[in-house]
Amino acid sequence: MPHAELEGLVTQIRQRDSAALGLLYDHLGGYAYTIAHSLTQDRFLAEEITQDAFLQVWHKIEAYRGGTDFRAWFARLTRNLALDRLRAEERRPQGVALDLDIFRAHLETQDPDLSAALGQLPPEQRHALELAYYQGLTHAQIAQQTRAPLGTVKSRIRDGLLKLRALLNDEEAGQ
Amino acid sequence: MNEPREYLPAYALGLLTDADKTQVETALAASADLRAELESLLAVIERLNHALPPQAPPPALRAKIIQAAQAPRPLSMWRWLALAAVFALFFGLFWLITQFEPESAPPPLFTVALTGDSGAQGELAIDFTRRTSFLRLQNLADPPPDQTYQIWLLDPQAGNRISWGLFRPQGGKAELELALPADFERFRALGVTLEPVGGSVVPTGPSIVRGAWGG
Known about the structure:
The structure holds two protein chains of two kinds. By secondary structure, chain A is mainly α. Helix content of chain A is 77%, strand content 0%. Chain A is built from nine helices and no strands. The two termini of chain A are 24 Å apart. In chain B, α2 (18-30) packs across α3. By secondary structure, chain B is an alpha+beta fold. Chain B starts with a helix and ends with a strand. In chain B, the strands form two sheets. In chain B, strands 1-7-4-3-2 form a five-stranded antiparallel beta sheet, with no helix packed on it. Classes of the chains: A mainly alpha, B alpha+beta. Chains A and B meet through α2, α3, α4, α5 and α9 of A and α1, α3 and α4 of B.
């Protein structure tokens, strides 16, 4: 859905139009659920998080000030709700182990350029970024898992995301 | 916190502590440059999001969300305390004013007692200034799984009523904030009935509580 149409739905939601909320769900429901599920690997949790995200849009739409990409704002809201749930429970549901290879394989078929850009990052930056993005681990958890100092982990994630952005910008400029 | 810009990647990924997050958001509010920087980082994360293995939500989730959005919102303890403070202030001022001006205008804020044969009771506090109201009920029985409580506003002149929302009590209690409809002034009473899940077009179940105002 084009940006302007999404903004139109947001305007209608500000006017308490529940039909607009339904249309927004039609466009972003699967997206929110996918983000929540990728982090939690739990269908029930993903369902609850998706519902929470849409209800926050409905009840607290004033938090979105407009003039920015609503889709990116909504994705961040959903991701943060999922991270809050993970951290509140201090673990994923038992028996769930995230396999980064599954995400990497899908990324390669879905977005080869992004996959290639990730592949150009120094391995330690890529690994730290993947643990943060795909698994939703905190700085401290990544430091523990990779046995690296906390400050080093923070630098790796920051530098990795900034370098990934630069690589993608170069790729777009080259097209 | 040093330079807020350095924290933006971690902020975009949801990695910051609440304290750091608050500081970044303060800096973002004051700087269009930082907001643009964040947007560009979120665009990278958006691209990662789009490459996630897609998952289909359960088909019933859409209706569940719409129903939850239309249901009245439970009030937090802090909002009840704030409301209680407003009420105390208002009635104190109202008492003072009426000592000197018995014919003053009707108050913009008042409560309606709600009672019923079921033993349930409560009150509706109406705030005309903010166009909202607060419904508090207690001694409510848990409805069967296929039933729910439905709130009605009654217009005695037109002889009709409208649904004002559905709710299920928790621990025999319900505390809800209800926005006043634009034509609220035509209504003179509130009722709560027990209805099938999803609500009814007109009341069909037993009356649980009822209260009237405005003579």
